[in-house]
């Protein structure tokens, strides 16, 4: 966060968040190291890893108070890692980061035990403020049903995942998707379709009418 209109946005640190150590797991080394430095400057002892296996090894040696996990990594996903870390240290507070945020992904993360879900890009203050808000997650814990994303939304997210995996190389992405390069370019010019609205979901104690 930065200064805006002469006002300085609040800076969160280890004392404010109530934690001393944090694990960062992301396969993008530059972004991971930059975030690690920012968190060290805020008083945290920071551990880092680039994938599931490395993270589990690091975490077993030095379990941390907090963890920030990338949803999509080579090998097993951030959700798999979230579950594993909570088996090792159940009181670790975890946030999932994703470059392709969606309602279903955030629901899966909260259900698996994350305290919050953030879309990239997210800086140190974004992440720490999400930990502060974590006791009041935006996805109801008692929720039992949510609308599935539209087919158009699923297609849009899949195309952008493949494109990111190809380093934004449109020709290679088109080859992997099995479509013509021009067709892919047309699809990329479209805006992301909206997810269906989430209806009011009754709590577990409420009666559900047939």
Any descriptors?
single chain, 210 residues, alpha/beta, Rossmann fold, 2 domains, five-stranded parallel beta sheet, 5 strands, 12% strand, elongated
Helicity range of the residues? 40-55%
Instruction: Please state how the strands of the largest beta sheet are arranged side by side.
Output: 2-1-3-4-5
The figure for the number of domains is 2
- The CATH homologous superfamily of the largest domain is named Response regulator
Q: What portion of residues belong to β-strands?
A: 5-15%
Gyration radius, to the nearest Å?
19 Å
Question: What CATH architecture of the largest domain do you see?
Answer: 3-Layer(aba) Sandwich
The CATH top-level class label of the largest domain: Alpha Beta
Class by SSE composition = alpha/beta
Overall shape: elongated
Query: Might you state the CATH topology name of the largest domain?
Result: Rossmann fold
Alpha carbon gap, first and last residue: 48 Å
